Amino acid sequence: MQSDALSKGERTRQKLLDLAYDSLIRKGFAATSIEELVEAAGITKSGFFYHFKDKRDLARQLIERHSDENTVFLDGMVQRARELSDDPLHSFLIFLKFYAEAMEELVDLHPGCFVATVSFQDLSFDREMRKMNADNVLAWRALFVTWLEEIAEVHPPRGHLQAADFADAILAFTYGGMTLAKALEDPAAISKQALLFRETIRLHFQPH
């Protein structure tokens, strides 16, 4: 749905989520107050509670939105890559090229790793929300494991690493890369790691 098609109420809700996301990444969810969010959004406190039951509900909706955005982000690139090649290895290499390009742009849009932030701020999120966060990571992992196992059936690997090991490597350079990009002030940090991983995959599954 395009932003200009959203109702005024939905635009306000999305603005509050945007403000909360930015504050969560930059200073932590515990340090983010409802008062500062309503002031930044230009609404009353009752306006906040029209959209969210409480701060916990805000956190839950943040995690849900992040999950939905990731699904759209990944599914779009997966579909494009699959359409360009019927070979699972070739399509995966195409996907990784798309991924590298997209992540370089996303570092500027997202100043930190949402998954890591939720994972490490244990006191700010209850068990249910931490599980939601973990389930999102597992969904990414399952997508990559399935694809890599499909590749292995067509292109026997040269080494003995399991599909799950490679899938976890994608997650590691993605989440860790956001920290690296910020520390080095290098938006291309994740992109470089993605292309390095792409070459690793190519070599691992090339003919003996």
What gap, in angstroms, lies between the N and C termini?
48 Å
Question: What summary fits the major beta sheet?
Answer: none
Structural class: mainly alpha
Total number of strands: 0
Number of domains: 2
Number of helices: 9
CATH level 3 topology of the largest domain = Tetracycline Repressor, domain 2
CATH architecture of the largest domain: Orthogonal Bundle
The percent range for strand residues is under 5%
The outline comes out as: elongated
Q: Mean pLDDT across all residues, rounded?
A: 88
Question: What percentage of residues falls in helices of 4 or more residues?
Answer: over 70%
Element pattern in H and E: HHHHHHHHH
Low-confidence stretches: none
Describe the protein in words.
By secondary structure, this protein is mainly alpha-helical. The chain has two domains: 1-52, Arc Repressor Mutant, subunit A (Orthogonal Bundle), CATH 1.10.10; 63-204, Tetracycline Repressor, domain 2, CATH 1.10.357.10. It has nine helices and no strands. Helix 4 (55-84) packs antiparallel against helix 5 (88-109) and helix 4 (55-84) runs parallel beside helix 7. The longest helix has 30 residues, at 55-84. The N and C termini lie far apart (48 Å). The model has no long low-confidence stretch (mean pLDDT 88).
